[in-house]
Amino acid sequence: MKKYFIIIPSLILCIIFASCRDDFAFSNSTGDLGFSQDTVFLDTVFTNIGSSTRTFKVYNNSSNDIVIPRVALAQGENSKYRLAVDGVPGRIFENVELLAKDSLFVFVETTIDINDFSSGDEFLYTDTIEFDNGPNQQVVELVTLVQDAIFLFPERDAQGIEETLPIGDPADGISISGFVLDDTELTLTAAKPYVIYGFAAVPANKTLTIEAGARLYFHAGSGIIVANEGSLQVNGLPSTTDALENEVIFEGDRLEPTYADIAGQWGAIWLTAGSKNNIINNATIKNASVGIIMDSVNTTSTGATLKLSNTQIYNSSNSGLIATGANIEAENLVINNSGQSSLVLRLGGEYTFNNCTIANYWNNSFRQDPTLFISNIIPNTDLTEDLVQARFTNCIIYGDRDIELILADDGVSQFNFSFENSLIKFNDRFDDFVGFANYDFNNASLYNQSFFNIDPIFKDEDNSQLQIDSTGGANGIANPANTTANDILGNSRSSAPDAGAYESTDLSAG
Description:
By secondary structure, the protein is mainly beta. Helix content is 4%, strand content 42%.
């Protein structure tokens, strides 16, 4: 019996060692590696801000297990790139094993200070990853555009505690990460982009002026907040190229193409109660949680607290514009793709919208809210205020749901609204709104020369290209007496103008 148990383990050990010898019989690479990419582009980064991580694969297409003698960045330890080869970090690797018909992952990222390379505002930084050396060497190119920027962020005190801004009653102790702009920071220009961390606050009796062509990039949870008696003036101008060189653009600070249309990357432009003389011209606000919050409850200001013209708000995870008891004048305004309503007018107020396109084709999740929500209340509260006026002329109110307009009237406060020469999506399939006076679409005092459920035929609503076709439902229905002189693209309105922010074209002609 002893002899039996001794022989069997010996045989097993022989088998194990024999198989190990076969498995680890690696031969040197012969320069026949395959790569999923021969050039890796790390998208534009701001100076001193880390890039996203890029990944590519290295393939051993041969039938032999191989060892790659050397994998290294050409600039070695001096390179601004960082690698991880199959999970192992570094810049230089030796004797990297790769089984037959197998592959390995290489991860690449970088952080670069533009001041180390150039006095300009942009710098193209490159390096290569070298696989093997001598006649067997193969390379993968690395390319990154580095852009200089001005950073605005909360300071930290001697104890390392970050600056915050109180919200609401200071006694409540509620605050958010943020800082107060000083006088030297109250004019933002097009000279360099701005990267903002936390909420940049405009103090009372001060105005934040943003000049034509400025670019503002917001980190997660960041935004602009305008205090009581403060003002925001966005002075964008019409552009002549697709680069929108004169437009002011607000967006998140992730520059990778995959983030170009991702909602909710940053907070909001928050115009608090009592802020005044807020003006936004020729701007694009994209990928925020809420594009604009306009609070004006209990304010003594007279006239519009916010004027909007030739402005676009896209991809808001919540809503494009939320106004609470505000006074807003808007023309050539476009809002699209919001997780809830694109436009919310609540707790009364006074509003005029002319030649605006208010749409919602949100496809990131289920949406139950209409494109346009108007009320003299705040739902689920006892708050109610007069809706002095909500006037929509020459507008498009449309989306991919049947009911894209809700009018929430508590019957206590005033509720004054009207739609004139407008196109509205309201398909009451089950007659749920029959008998409600606010939805009497034959009442000319409420719905004068307005049309329903006729597709405006947008160019590409999913990608917020809301130009309309000349055969669509908004074509020629506007009132020439009160249309804007030009559309949002600067095109002259025709003698038979169209509803919405855009004059129609023949989209089939390309």
